[in-house]
């Protein structure tokens, strides 16, 4: 059974079939096409009484032309901030997003996070993210919800009362501290198991070992994160003057 768009000749056969009073199914059999194809074609182009093959062909070509133009507009990269090379920026963003996906982030979420990091303001509205990433509002909403849960983005309202999603100096610090708190909850839960199972059992010894290990790791991560945050703040203060 042939596929693809109807040809001009097929449309003339449809017009002749309609003039002869044939049913859609009978016309479709003559074309070796699904009945639904003929039905949709006729109803889309004037109905049984108003169908004209040449007009239907012209309308289809016009729709195809508009579709190609729309696709080309979506594919055209938006102007970059500061006169940057759009193609180089796009390649960099793709490689940056790959790093995040390799670390476990979903692809859409990684792309959104990179969009925020590579914007000078460090923040974008949902509408701006939709335009920049060429995705649906639902995709943006889902990715933002995931990133907020991980402590990787925050939101605030601008002067127009629109919500903006931002990354800032402390975003990775807060994300790491979220991990630290989760580890400490793990240690606390393991120790409750020691009480439940009895301190003289092998299971309790195992759980206490886990708790002590996690305590040490969590404390080490916390101290390292606080030291790194101080270094980052000092760097930002040193380099903030030229942009003020």
From TrEMBL:
<dbReference type="InterPro" id="IPR051917">
    <property type="entry name" value="Transposase-Integrase"/>
</dbReference>
<dbReference type="InterPro" id="IPR001845">
    <property type="entry name" value="HTH_ArsR_DNA-bd_dom"/>
</dbReference>
<dbReference type="Pfam" id="PF12802">
    <property type="entry name" value="MarR_2"/>
</dbReference>
<feature type="compositionally biased region" description="Basic and acidic residues">
    <location>
        <begin position="77"/>
        <end position="89"/>
    </location>
</feature>
<feature type="region of interest" description="Disordered">
    <location>
        <begin position="58"/>
        <end position="89"/>
    </location>
</feature>
<dbReference type="InterPro" id="IPR025246">
    <property type="entry name" value="IS30-like_HTH"/>
</dbReference>
<feature type="compositionally biased region" description="Basic residues">
    <location>
        <begin position="63"/>
        <end position="76"/>
    </location>
</feature>
<protein>
    <submittedName>
        <fullName>MarR family transcriptional regulator</fullName>
    </submittedName>
</protein>
<dbReference type="InterPro" id="IPR036390">
    <property type="entry name" value="WH_DNA-bd_sf"/>
</dbReference>
<dbReference type="InterPro" id="IPR000835">
    <property type="entry name" value="HTH_MarR-typ"/>
</dbReference>
<feature type="domain" description="HTH arsR-type">
    <location>
        <begin position="103"/>
        <end position="181"/>
    </location>
</feature>
<dbReference type="InterPro" id="IPR036388">
    <property type="entry name" value="WH-like_DNA-bd_sf"/>
</dbReference>
<dbReference type="Pfam" id="PF13936">
    <property type="entry name" value="HTH_38"/>
</dbReference>
């Amino acid at each position: 059974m042939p596929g693809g768009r109807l040809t001009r000749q097929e449309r003339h056969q449809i017009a002749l079939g309609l003039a002869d009073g044939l049913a859609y199914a009978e016309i479709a059999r003559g074309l070796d096409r699904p009945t639904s194809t003929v039905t949709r074609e006729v109803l889309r182009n004037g109905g049984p009484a108003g169908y004209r093959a040449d007009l239907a062909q012209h309308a289809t070509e016009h729709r195809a032309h508009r579709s190609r133009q729309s696709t080309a507009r979506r594919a055209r990269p938006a102007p970059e901030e500061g006169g940057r090379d759009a193609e180089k920026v796009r390649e960099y963003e793709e490689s940056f997003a790959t790093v995040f996906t390799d670390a476990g982030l979903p692809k859409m979420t990684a792309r959104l996070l990179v969009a925020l990091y590579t914007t000078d303001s460090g923040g974008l509205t949902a509408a701006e993210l939709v335009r920049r990433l060429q995705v649906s509002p639902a995709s943006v909403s889902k990715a933002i919800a995931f990133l907020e849960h991980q402590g990787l983005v925050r939101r605030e309202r601008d002067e127009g009362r629109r919500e903006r999603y931002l990354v800032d100096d402390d975003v990775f610090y807060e994300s790491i501290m979220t991990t630290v708190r989760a580890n400490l909850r793990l240690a606390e839960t393991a120790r409750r198991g020691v009480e439940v199972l009895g301190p003289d059992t092998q299971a309790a010894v195992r759980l206490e070992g886990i708790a002590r290990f996690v305590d040490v790791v969590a404390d080490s991560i916390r101290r390292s994160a606080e030291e790194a945050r101080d270094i980052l703040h000092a760097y930002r203060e040193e380099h903030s003057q030229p942009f003020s």
